[in-house]
Known about the structure:
The complex is a heterodimer. Chain A is mainly alpha-helical. Chain A has helices spanning 2-17, 23-34, 38-63, 69-75, 82-112, 119-125. By secondary structure, chain B is α+β, with helices and mostly antiparallel strands. Chain B has a domain at 577-708. In chain B, the strands form six sheets. Chain B has an eleven-stranded mixed β-sheet with strand order 1-29-2-3-7-8-9-10-18-19-21. The longest helix of chain B has 27 residues, at 83-109. The chains are: A mainly alpha, B alpha+beta. Chain A binds chain B through residues 15-16, 19-21, 24, 28, 53, 56-57, 60-61, 63-65, 67-75, 77, 80, 85, 88-89, 92-93, 95-96, 99-100, 102-103, 106-107, 109-110, 113, and chain B through 3-4, 6-8, 10-11, 13-15, 17-18, 21-22, 31-33, 35-47, 175, 718-721, 770-773. Chain A: It comes from Hymenobacter lutimineralis. Chain A: This is Apolipoprotein N-acyltransferase.
Amino acid sequence: MLLFLLIFLAATGAQLFLPWWSVVPVAVALGFWRGTRSGRAFLAGFAGLALSWLLPAAWLHLRTDGILSQRVATLLPLGGNGWLLALVAALLIGLIGGLSSLSGYWLRRAIWNGPPAPVSGAARRQP
Amino acid sequence: MLLYIRALLLLALTGVLTWVLNTKQGDIPPMGKFLSPYQGFWRNAEAPNDFPVSQTLRLPGLQQPVQVRFDDRHVPHVFAQNDHDLYYAQGYLTAHDRLWQMEFQTHVAAGRLSEIVGESRLETDRFFRRMGLKHGAEQSLRVMMADPTIKVVLESYSDGVNAYIQSLTPRTYPFEYKLLNYAPEPWQPLKSALLLKFMAFDLSGRSDDLRMSNILGKFGPEVVKDLFPDYPQREDPIVPVGAPRDFTPVAVPETPASFRAAQSGKVPQQEPDAELGSNNFAVSGAKSATGFPILANDPHLQLNLPSIWYQMQLVAPGVNVYGVTIPGAPTIIIGFNQQVAWGVTNVGADVLDWYQLKFRDASKREYWHDGRWKPVRRQLETFHVRGRPDRVDTVLYTHHGPVVYDHDEKPFLAETPIRHALRWTAHEGGNEVLTFYRLNRARNYQDYTTALRSYASPAQNFIFASTQQDIAIWPNGRFPLKWRNQGKFVLDGTDSAYDWKGWIPQAHNPHVKNPARGFVSSANQFSAGPEYPYYIGWDFAPWDRGHRINERLTRMTQVTVDSLRLLQNDDVGVNARTILPRLLSLVQPQRLPAAQRRVYEELSRWNYRYAANAINPSIFELWYPNLVKRIWEDEFGSTPVRPLRYPSRDRTTTLLLKEPTSRWIDDQRTPQTETLEQLALESLQWAADSLTRKFGPLGPEWRWANQKSTDILHLAQLPGFGRMDIDCGGGAGIVNATSQRNGPSWRMVVALGPQPKAYGVFPGGESGNPGSRFYDDMIETWRVGKLDELVYLASPNQQHPRVHAAWMLQGK
């Protein structure tokens, strides 16, 4: 849950100023730091990033009456459904987020090869 | 170790996936970038209150403050204090709404689309380069930049566009840049010139010379004279027959001995649509209810989004003009000011000719002309194809112009390869921008005629009205001084007698001022009657629209804005009215099965109106073309090696009405002899069957709007970004010329007077952003044939209920 929140907040902040792919290093680093289990690391990255797109996409869709999302959803083609488009976008970035976070976690497992306890993270957290 | 491999593999997979989503894959946009709500397309969607009602923009290079007001149709009203700032602001604001369209269209004209789209557009690009559009634009730019006034106009416009481009970041790029994953490049005056040449291609890029030479070769001069005459039987020319002439004609070159071109399998790969046309008309003060002239114009072009036109009001010392501009070119093209109004329709004159060349040998370095071998100029054209290595093409130029085709054509004789060079007025340098600059500031007839002098191409019927009670029309442009029929066929490129010999003096272009009938009009028909002393072409648009307009204007009295608006929406088919009674008389209804007899009876009750709900136009518009095809296809149908064309609609009408036993009626491909009655019956049955298959038995489903199906498509034909199946009447050859893909691209009616009252609409909106409510907000008004009142402000601070936003542009 903490990892999810961290990824969601950090990735959202990064994307406000940096290109969209900045979420990859962010999620890798956080997965590395706070990952506890493979499944959890993936889910936290997936949900954190999916939400970081779903919320603003839904908000933009709503406040502009779907004026452009409906057209793009016709083009792609998703039957002109702007909500579906926001969902597909969220799944896409969620996948990237999940893979990033998981690879961060796996990387740490490879380096320390120890039990799945956030030793280094905990140590850094309480200086 | 295994854990390392696992982790690194997954990391690599993530990296590759991210790279894929950040890159354009074929036609698929870079999904990661594109779908991101932080930087992707979502940012281009606009909510109604996103538009700043008041703001100050700091722009580099502005000399004095410029005030801009926006009305409720998002039309900018620009108040500048000098010409430089006026056109700078025009460039800035046009780019603000239409940057992608401006750049895309100039890329098409320059043959650079494959830089954006990739290899699929390379052939199109090669075609436009070989047609010499860029070559023509460079010629015009040289002429325009030599004029100090126009130099300022073009350069400040360009600076304004660039100021907008510089204000953008990848997050704020217009939608299409994100979709196609590229970035805007700096604007240059050359691009404005390219845009005008693109219009010239659209409006004067068609030619039947090769087809006509093939017909001449196949059937001989007698048939050509009979079926492809130089003047139609039914015509209602722009300059009325018998109008007094105010010039003494100069001598025209002598017709050289006859020349028969080698047969050709090559005609331009992509010709502009023959349906493109336009209407304009103006009534005198004596004929109007207001006592002042009223002028109307509706240019018919392909219906696209973003709209081809952009409305603006431009005010500076010496000018206060309102009208439409072509995004990418400065000044107002069609519009009005306090004293005058003007508009344009296309002149279908023959200003594009093909010359058959004889090269010395296969290296094509020299060509035979005027009794000696002359050097060929070779120009290299490089194509930066997206995702592919550059491609280089060599275009040959003779003194005529570019050799558009010099390969994949079977040489006529191996040792003297025959190719065609193109001579076209669009390659001439002209100062069209000066014409519009002066029209924007014109106060009277004198100013208008002065403005027309520098105009070269594409030739237009410039219609004019002034508060001084003048109305006039000049089919105007640079017309080559030709012998009769010069360029009706392919010309001999080896003989200097076939070269163009100068120009018709501009003052001798057809024109009429204040004719006795109290109105002037044009609809792309013949510019003048047979008594006009010069040859400018043999094939103009059919008379239908022009005749209908003149017939209604003749009957009108007490003309108001609304009478002219209704005339723009007139939906009577003159061709149907002329020919349908004859077609019906050719068919014996008792020979038809019951279902088809009902179709016949339905047709015999038709009032010839092409209304959206009418059923009869659907039947007639299948019946008539199919009959025409059955008559001509056996002799004049094109084959890949020998393109031909049918005789004109006018000649077909004469055949149908008066020559029932003509030798052309029989289908040469069948052993038996067909009669006209037989062809009429079969084609009617074919039409009825087609509609039954498509819509079921005769009923309301057969309505014309269903059959015609007018579509307005996005310029890049993106599904979801156009407006399909628009429910409206009209059609090709109808005054309301709304066909499947073409139609009135701007309708304007201006009532002059102490204060001009003007109305207009185009089928789209001011914004080019598909995420804006101003992208297509005018379509509904246009569809139902209504017009918006155009807001014409007298001062920058004038209160007006429809004008809310006020921007200030300032130098920095």
